[in-house]
Automatic annotation (TrEMBL):
It comes from the Eukaryota. It holds the Pfam family Astacin. Zn(2+) binds at residues 156, 160, 166. It comes from Clunio marinus. The keyword Transferase does not apply. The active site is at residue 157. One of its GO terms (molecular function) is metalloendopeptidase activity. One of its GO terms (biological process) is proteolysis. This is Metalloendopeptidase. Binds 1 zinc ion per subunit. Residues 269-288 are annotated as: Disordered. Its EC number is 3.4.24.-.
Length: 288
């Protein structure tokens, strides 16, 4: 299992990178053929593939439909950010820095939409949420101004749009974490359902405590006590709080889209830390 240097852990705790999952669009529960799970929206068809269903004909190996590569092998995701939604320049710049951090370590490229049919429309909606993967046509990604502008949130939601779910629902998660079910809100237990490994792939990457897609230890707690407890207790106060792209996050995206730039987890990866005013580079050192 990968170990992170204790110095880095101390830094992460000290700066307190808080990732806020946010609430889904509860008032849209009955809108067409969709299923809501915490900060994601996906169709019944996607849900059946991810969490297991009979009468499947083939293994997908991915979460859902991919975005299209261009002739240079870049995965292009058009986006739209309409200032009439209430976003000011510092909101837009903040989101774009987080998207750039993804591009810096993957072959995914975010381009402002002109006339592309498939695109991500970033809205000031009710909470922080995204559709899973490329849905076709206009698909919303919500970044509520009063509630979603915390370190890593825009990156987290865009990685849902790229096609990935949450780390702690990976099929082998029980080898790395314990879910204290007695501490989980009854109505939120489905947020911890494990994916079906026949139809959802983590692309042969190890469980990643540092993933920006990981939940906090107290996610959906009914009593303030820990819900997710890492087997390696060093990470108890780290999971869900990193707020930046991990080496594993980048590797999973690159393998999913068969990018040529990264084929294995590097010993060192340069990531970008975002806040509302500055961008700084940090090097995360990973050792076996």
């Amino acid at each position: 299992m990968n170990k992170i240097h204790f110095a880095l852990i101390g830094v992460l705790v000290a700066v307190n990178f808080v990732f806020v999952t946010g609430n889904p669009l509860r008032d849209a529960e009955n809108s067409f053929d969709d299923e809501l799970m915490d900060d994601m929206r996906f169709t019944d068809e996607q849900r059946n593939f991810m969490f297991g269903s009979e009468n499947k004909n083939s293994k997908t190996g991915t979460t859902w439909r991919h975005w299209i590569k261009n002739e240079r092998g870049e995965v292009v995701i058009p986006y739209n950010i309409d200032p009439s939604q209430g976003f000011e320049k510092h909101h837009i710049d903040w989101m774009l820095r987080q998207f750039t951090a993804i591009s810096n370590s993957t072959c995914v490229r975010f381009v402002e939409r002109t006339d592309e049919e498939d695109f991500v429309d970033i809205i000031n909606g009710s909470g922080c949420w995204s559709w899973l993967g490329r849905m076709g046509g206009r698909q919303e990604l919500s970044m509520k101004i009063n509630g979603c502008f915390f370190s890593g949130t825009a990156m987290h939601e865009m990685i849902h749009a790229i096609g990935f779910h949450h780390m702690q629902i990976n099929y082998d998660r029980d080898d790395y974490i314990t879910i204290n079910w007695e501490n989980v809100n009854e109505d939120d237990k489905s947020a911890f359902n494990k994916v079906d490994p026949r139809y959802y792939s983590n692309f042969d990457t190890p469980y990643d405590y540092l993933s920006v897609m990981h939940y906090l230890k107290t996610a959906y707690s009914n009593n303030g006590k820990d819900v997710i407890v890492p087997n390696d207790k060093t990470f108890l106060d780290i999971i869900g709080r990193v707020g930046m792209l991990s080496a594993g996050d980048a590797l999973r995206i690159n393998r999913m889209y068969e990018c040529s730039i990264v084929d294995e987890i590097p010993e060192e990866t340069t990531t970008v830390t975002q806040d509302t005013s500055t961008v700084s580079e940090e090097t995360t050192t990973v050792s076996e």
